[in-house]
Amino acid sequence: MPTLDAFASRYYDIPPSVMLKVDLLRHGVRLGSAPLGTRHFHHHDESGQRAVDPRAHLQGSIELADGTCVFVSHNPSSPYAVQADPESGQIALQEGSRNEFICHLKSGPRFAWTRARTARQTPMAAVLTPSLGGSCGPLACFLLRYCEFVSATEQCRFCSWVGMGKSHELRPDVEDFRETLRAIWDEQRAIGYLAFSGGSLFNRAKEADAFLRYLNAVKETNLPLPATVAAIQALDKPDSRRLREAGFDCVCYSMEVWEEKAWSAILPGKTRSVGRTSWMRCLSDAVEVFGAGHVLCNFVAGVETTLPDLYSSPEAAAESTLAGMRWCYEQGVYPKYAVWITGGGALLGSCPPAPLDYYARLLRGRQQLFAEFPMAIPPTDCPRCLTQSCEADLSRLDSARYGLGPASAEAWEGRHSMAHCF
Length: 422
Prior knowledge:
Layout: H1 2-10, H2 16-27, E1 30-31, E2 38-39, E3 58-63, E4 69-73, E5 80-84, E6 91-95, E7 100-107, E8 129-130, E9 139-144, H3 148-151, H4 174-188, E10 194-198, H5 204-220, E11 228-231, H6 237-246, E12 250-252, H7 260-266, H8 268-273, H9 276-290, E13 295-301, H10 314-331, E14 334-339, H11 356-372, H12 391-397, H13 399-402, H14 409-412
Parallel strand pairs: 1-5, 9-10, 10-11, 11-12, 12-13, 13-14
Antiparallel strand pairs: 2-3, 3-4, 3-7, 5-6, 6-7, 8-9
């Protein structure tokens, strides 16, 4: 297996499947005949997708032979391809123009509800979506199907919102929402977590109103309530308190990048809407409302490398992100990261992905932070839903080196009740 051998030789202390996961996230895959993924309704737009290659709207996950779960989406230019053997049906990951075999795969779950429609004939997958293809059945709902940052040409430069479609509704229909949620519970019987997100408004209090409305809609179904997270712009303390009193378990106020110079270049809308200093204050204030470890902050790991002359090396850029993670821990905020996925219509989508050396340093440093800080893993995370980051994989595959502190291999076991089903 030359590809895995090359990773093992270059990054001898990191399991090669973890570096393969990073590379698959960096490049996507060419989806062939394999039964993989489900249709993703960008902007919940059905009509705008009809004339497009259907593979362009497939998203899901794959599981490598050692149990590593990876989010995948179609990229026709990827060096990697996923193919199914026409006779056995076995799925394989291949590389290069000659489709050199790397390893066999399992496909992540493909739920029937994602192909169903509501009574109003709305595709259920346009109401809720399997979050990042997680095998524990997590859900995401984009509550605001409009982003004022895009209208002002101030969208986050890594965000593909503007290139994803055009919604005919500003918000999902509440009855569609309830009906879809009931169908999901009937089929899945469990949900790893429920995440609310959406476009951004310059009026952040108004943005928060939608999160309250739809969490109440969930409660009105009298269905079990999984761990809930509001992924929203950083809110002032009164609005953070409104989310907590409504019943959200966690909030995620994502800084995305750490360096101040990177903020204005990559996050112009957030810079005008809140600003880096105020964002950090909102994070600290939210800890007083939700408690330590229940306020999350995500970093789009690697996007900062697109800024020329800001860092002396890929490793220096990774150190910057690690400094942001350290600051989060010191405030009682749980830091997260997602490997930056290029393409998709984002303004930085044509830039090359961040170098592998960046991720090698980031992955090692993030595990060291686990050893240094005792903060528990949040209820939203498990090894089968962290398809875009690697901390659970490192702990599981090399527990002696990376299963440190609250990220011990045992700490990841049994999280999210569906994880054993796939």
